[in-house]
Fold this sequence. Notes:
The protein has 681 residues and is an alpha/beta fold. The protein folds into four domains: 1-39 and 146-168, DNA polymerase, domain 1, CATH 1.10.150; 42-133, CATH 2.40.50.140; 235-425, 3-Layer(aba) Sandwich (Rossmann fold); 435-603, Rossmann fold, CATH 3.40.50.300. Helices cover 36% and strands 19% of the residues. It is built from 24 helices and 20 strands. The protein has a seven-stranded parallel beta sheet with strand order 10-11-9-12-13-8-14, sandwiched between helices. Strand 2 and strand 3 (75-83) form a beta hairpin. The protein is globular.
Amino acid sequence: MDLGVEKLKGIGPKTAEILKKYGIRTVRDFFYNLPRDYENYEKPVSIAEIKPGKIVIRGKIDSLSTRRAKRRNLLITEGVIRDKTGAIKVVWFNQSYRLRQFEPEKEYFFTGNFEFKNGRYSLISPSAILASDVDPISGISPIYVAHGKLKSSDFKRLINNSRAKFAEIPDLLPMVRPGTRKDALFFAHFPNTLKTAEKAREYLAYEELFELILAAKLNRQENNKLKATKIPFDVKKIKNFVASLPFKLTNAQRLASWEIFQDMQKETPMNRLLQGDVGSGKTMVAAMAAYEAILAGAQVAFLAPTAILANQHYENLRELFEPFKITVALLTGATKDKKSLKTNIKNGKINLVVGTHALLTDDTEFLGLDLVIIDEQHRFGVEQRQKLMLKSPADLAPHLLAMTATPIPRSLQLTLFGDLDVSILNELPQGRQSIQTTILKETETKEKLYPKIQEILSRLPDTKKHGKNARGQQIYWICKAIEDSEISEATSVKTRTRKLREIFPKCRVEFLHGKMKPTEKDAIMEQFADGKIDILVSTTVVEVGVDVPNATLIVIENAESYGLAQLHQLRGRVGRGASPAFCYFVTSGELTPSRRLRELEKSTDGFYLAEVDLKLRGPGEIYGSLQHGALDLRIASLSDTKLIHKAQIDVMKFLQDPKNMLKYSELMQGITKYQQITTLN
Length: 681
């Protein structure tokens, strides 16, 4: 399984190079490159019987031609598909190779959406496969993700060349589940029924979860072997600090702080994830942890994903700690006189350093770094986090407090995350505004949304920050695309900006998107935070960003195309001040609002919504959202809590016998990447 992929029949040097670019380097990688889906061609519908929606038809194709769209740089390939009962139009976008794909006298299966577009019904961008290439008995054909020049049909050919090799695949796991790995992999690629494919993938999903959970358990064991500086709990000074705050802590904040204080008193490093909904007060809990560490003579590093967010944390923490004679510094790429600042950090003259990736450079050294706080830690890669952790004194590991505004569903905490120390902030501080959420059809915006925008823009800010020149509260407007596209009907950031300037000519409207330079993005966000922009039109780049208390309304276009968790995060951009806040989900077309939109309309509880999200999602990405680009679950679904629970029980049995670590060598090699992903410390 560890041999290079070029050892397989039909894979020469050129093909091997293409595969390696996409992470398929070994025989194991090749066999685990499973179909993304299966098409069932057993019962195609005749053209005379088709209805709008996803269809499978069998027929011949002719009258193929390609033309360039007048308005945009887009190639449109059109043709006619015929069977014995009739004919329909077919359209592909930017797929000119379709002209060379088909032979007029041969039959193909076509799978795609039959829909009304540009004044007529057409089959839009269907997949196509030779009817003779489909198993005549099962009628099932696997569909693979294309990689570079290698199309799905190429993968089918290559995997078929290696058909005999499946018999040589050894088992990976202890015999805790019925079946074998070789059978599971074979039937995942060559199913005789959809049920067979489902059973094969379930076996492989269990295998994947077993590896992931085992990695997390082993990390826990490794973390318990590390040593850290014990930070004593100074009850009196902490009480005085809390009493000095201009607001009352929530019970959830008190409990989370207590859990952190208990962890830091131990000689093993704290490895805690602080999760709380948007606006639940995570930064204040982190500040209390920092204060406790600094009282004991420790240095603290506070890592933030963007310069503007780091600057906001710096200003808030500097003001908070000023009465206590604690020195707080800011280190970003834009910091002037870095050399002098880094000298003071190295000499221990700086108690708390707030910064971005600039904290990770080799010449940023600490005298006694005993606590690391990472905000929105999923924005940082494993190596970046570890680089900061290694800046602690020799032979000691710093305590780690990672924060995330992405709530983990409770059911997953009890299974997959059972061994991770988690603190939960499930209360909002006093004064935090609820957000009134409304779903609107695109056709209703002029009548119901524009008057609300006018009202918001005429309201005075809820703070005195903007002085006499204040012109009202502010608005976020979220768009799906940066540029207009013939393929998508979504209004782009640039087009929406132009339209809003026409509708509200007295307003200051600017745009923001991910392809802008970091300095440009920061400049726009600073202007918005300072009240110099009335409406900020943006892509989801503002999902995690600076607090703007004066922003009280957010509009999200094409809301049906976003995930539930992302919509909740975007909605959290408003409601951060003392004024009422509003969110509008604008849907395109005449479709009935989805369940996730209806759930968001009725609830702003991130933990409840996380549970709903888990039930609604397909393949699991929740863990991945916590670990930067990290967890590529190829098969398993994190919504399958029964399978997760079974794997967890079996992992505990496996760990009871230390000999298993040697007996199952391939398993132990394979979990290395999962150990990197599941570790925080």
